[in-house]
Amino acid sequence: MKKRKGGWLKAIAVVVGIGLFIASPGLAIVLAIACFILVRIVARFTKRKAKSNGPSRKSAKTSAAEQHKLYLPDDYVALDTETTGLSSATDRIIEIGAVRIRNRQITDRFSALINPGLSLGPHITDLTGITDEMLDGQPAISTVLPDFYDWLGNDPVVGHNIKFDLGFFAAESERIKLNAPKPVYYDTLHLSRTQFPEERHHRLVDLIQRFGIAEVEEHRALSDAIQTYQCFEWLRTYIESNALRPKKSRKRRPRKSEDSYQRRARADYINSHDCEPRNYQPEGRLIADVRDCGGVDVSRRGDYQELFARYGKGTWLWVVVTRGYTPNGKDAGLPTIEVWADGEYAGFLTQLQASRYFLHVPEEGGVTQAHIRQDNKSGRYRMRVELPPAHEEIDLLSYMVEQS
């Protein structure tokens, strides 16, 4: 039986209390009440102090380690898909790649090409390297998907923007009347955002470059699944090693925007110069009055010099802007804003600019103005398209997936 500390003190207090009560009952009652109140006050103060101090450093470390152990599994499947587009309602899966992880090591692989029953768009072939000829003769999704689900079993899954892949699995399963599993999942995109909130971009290619895993994302399902597994394990190590370190949050420096004076000066310039477009206004929704817009440079990637030269330096013209995909470069295949002049492709916005103006472009496209400029030194032409004031930057890929 455990001994209670201070028992002899309590015994002496009881004897003294009885003596006081016999000698002077009134005084004894007053002292008893005062002692009771004092004891309650001390007890409450002690309890608050203990609560504010929290658990010991050792117990906190053990708790944090246990939580991370439970949160990030050692056994799972990392997966990725390649598809004909971004909409699970209208597009199809053309490749599934996955690796089985046991005790944080790859033990098995799954890889399959799938005939979607339709032709691939050129941007998908450019992005993935998969061609219609490669898919000709490959099994249909109704054959591959049951085999993949059997191989997957009840494992939790890891993916980058995993909801995109799960959304396609659900849609394809519904089409072939197959019950899709609903596994526990972990998203490296979400983990990266929570651990590195100061970073603007969290694509798979950003993670593999930031973590020193690779320089290039191949956009093939199996290789992307392996890189996702590597990113997941890197993030696990980072989280566990930083569990007790308070993160210093870096606030983004606010982006400069035009003030009212600049907008008025721009409107005055438009009114006082010959900014009348030299071509016919195409049909479509007019995005905004050019006087309320701001000029945004079209990406320099691509050779549109012959087209721009036809209009000439200083020319204003009507253009159509649409939601599309980056045709080349490191951002190939990612959503962007395309520009069309009199039916001819005139370029696209960089990922940074597109993330600031994408929501201003209707899904069916819109009409605005642009003007041609010429560099005095190189003589090269450039186009500047007029768009409404920039909105807050968005993650274009996540936005497109959420809208699908």
Walk me through what this model shows.
The protein is α+β, with helices and mostly antiparallel strands. The chain folds into two domains: 70-241, 2-Layer Sandwich (Nucleotidyltransferase, domain 5); 262-403, no CATH class. The chain is 42% helix and 19% strand. It has a six-stranded antiparallel sheet with strand order 6-11-10-7-8-9. The N and C termini lie far apart (67 Å). This is Exonuclease domain-containing protein. Keywords: Membrane, Transmembrane, Transmembrane helix. Residues 75-241 form the Exonuclease domain. It comes from Bombiscardovia apis.
SSE topology sketch:
Elements: H1 7-23, H2 25-53, H3 57-71, E1 76-83, E2 93-102, E3 105-113, H4 122-128, H5 132-135, H6 141-152, E4 157-159, H7 162-175, E5 185-187, H8 188-195, H9 204-210, H10 221-241, H11 260-272, E6 294-297, H12 305-311, E7 316-325, E8 335-341, E9 344-348, H13 351-357, E10 366-374, E11 381-387, H14 396-403
Parallel strand pairs: 1-4, 4-5
Antiparallel strand pairs: 1-2, 2-3, 6-11, 7-8, 7-10, 8-9, 10-11
Q: What would you say about this model in short?
A:
This protein is of the alpha+beta class.
